[in-house]
Write a structure and sequence with these properties.
Layout (H helix, E strand, L loop, with lengths): L14 H26 L14 H10 L5 E5 L3 H6 L4 H8 L23 E5 L5 H15 L5 E6 L6 H12 L4 E7 L2 E2 L2 E2 L22 E4 L3 H16 L5 E6 L17 H8 L3 H9 L7 H24 L23
Parallel strand pairs: 1-2, 1-3, 3-4, 4-8, 7-8
Antiparallel strand pairs: 5-6
Helix pairs in contact: 1-2, 1-9, 1-10, 2-7, 4-10, 5-6
């Protein structure tokens, strides 16, 4: 059985880099909170799957990746897309079904995609993106570009066939891909431990594919950054794939339709004490040279950013009727092709 471990600090962060990492986490937190607020105001179309509590994973990889690397994520992917340069306005506009949204309101919460930024899709079909990430990594390997594909997925995906298929081929072909299991303990409403033969659904299966079992604290931003850098640089330098299991916890239910009453009260309280944003902020205040004023300035900046994005999204009209039948096929048309 794998045990959680702390990676060595091979990639030390200076104070400006730590503050940048905190800024990324703070942006993710306010973006998710604002999405929640807008949903409660009945301004979000459909449902949302929020990532409060999982910000350290998205922010750390956002800090570690290069601009031309690839990100693949799930419907709980707002933070991962934002870390690849998708603006708050584009995210909130999309959630609200407005023309200013990333996909002009046609994709909604679960399908954020911005290929030009390396954000290669938020996949609503569980496990569908794992082999696609392997394909992107194979393309980079074939072209010799040194790009790395990073693929995020939930703990429930580890019981899907494509998880095993993708890992097998990633290892056989020595692909530059990093698979990151965001284990938040629940596959929708079911505890992952109730339906999985091993205690750690990703890490305990790594050795079956010739991979090192890696189990880390997904709520520790520094641990996640070191883990991300180690895996990405290994892939970039021809060392092949990595499978990471990052232990974390979502602060809310699976989606906005889920009150999460199935989670024990004590469990929720204990995980709330491990809030990645709050704890990293507190940690930075113990580091020489970082002051409360530095952090407050960041907090004020991100609050202003999300307020500006909210107003821009609210003031944007719905998409025009004439685009309803575009983007259906690769050539942009809606007619069945002979």
């Amino acid at each position: 059985m794998a045990t959680a471990k702390k990676p060595p600090e091979k990639y030390p962060l200076d104070n400006s880099e730590r503050l940048d990492l905190y800024r990324k986490m703070a942006q993710c937190r306010v973006l998710q909170q604002r999405a929640y607020d807008l949903f409660m105001q009945n301004l979000v179309k459909g449902t949302t799957h929020l990532g409060q509590g999982q910000e350290a994973i998205a922010a750390a990889f956002g800090q570690a990746m290069k601009e031309d690397d690839y990100t693949f994520c799930t419907y709980r992917g707002h933070n991962h897309n934002h870390m690849r340069g998708v603006t708050m306005t584009e995210v909130l506009g999309e959630l609200m079904g407005r023309d200013i949204g990333l996909l002009r309101g046609k994709g909604g919460s679960m399908h954020l995609t911005k290929v030009e930024n390396g954000a290669m899709g938020s996949y609503a079909i569980i496990g569908a993106h794992l082999p696609i990430a392997a394909g992107a990594a194979w393309s980079a390997q074939y072209r010799g570009t040194e790009q790395v594909a990073v693929c995020f997925f939930g703990d429930g995906t580890t019981n899907i066939g494509t998880f095993h298929e993708a890992l097998n081929f990633a290892k056989i072909w020595n692909l530059p891909v990093v698979y990151v299991c965001e284990n938040n303990a629940y596959m929708e409403y079911t505890p992952i431990g109730d339906v999985t033969a091993v205690p750690n659904p990703a890490a305990d299966r790594a050795s079956a594919y010739g991979l090192e079992p890696i189990l880390v604290d997904g709520n520790d931003a520094d641990v996640m950054y070191q883990t991300a850098m180690t895996a990405i640089e290994k892939a970039r330098n021809g060392g092949g794939p990595t499978l990471i299991e990052a232990l974390t916890y979502r602060h809310h239910g699976h989606s906005r339709a889920d009150p999460a009453k199935y989670r024990p009260e004590e469990e929720v309280k204990e995980w709330m004490k491990r809030d990645p944003v709050v704890n990293y902020r507190a940690k930075l205040l113990t580091i020489a040279g970082i002051k409360e004023a530095d952090l407050k300035s960041i907090d004020d900046d991100v609050e202003a950013m999300v307020n500006e994005a909210t107003e821009a999204a609210k003031n944007s009209p719905p998409p025009p009727d004439e685009i309803a039948f575009t983007d259906v096929w690769a050539d942009g048309g809606a007619q069945w092709r002979n």
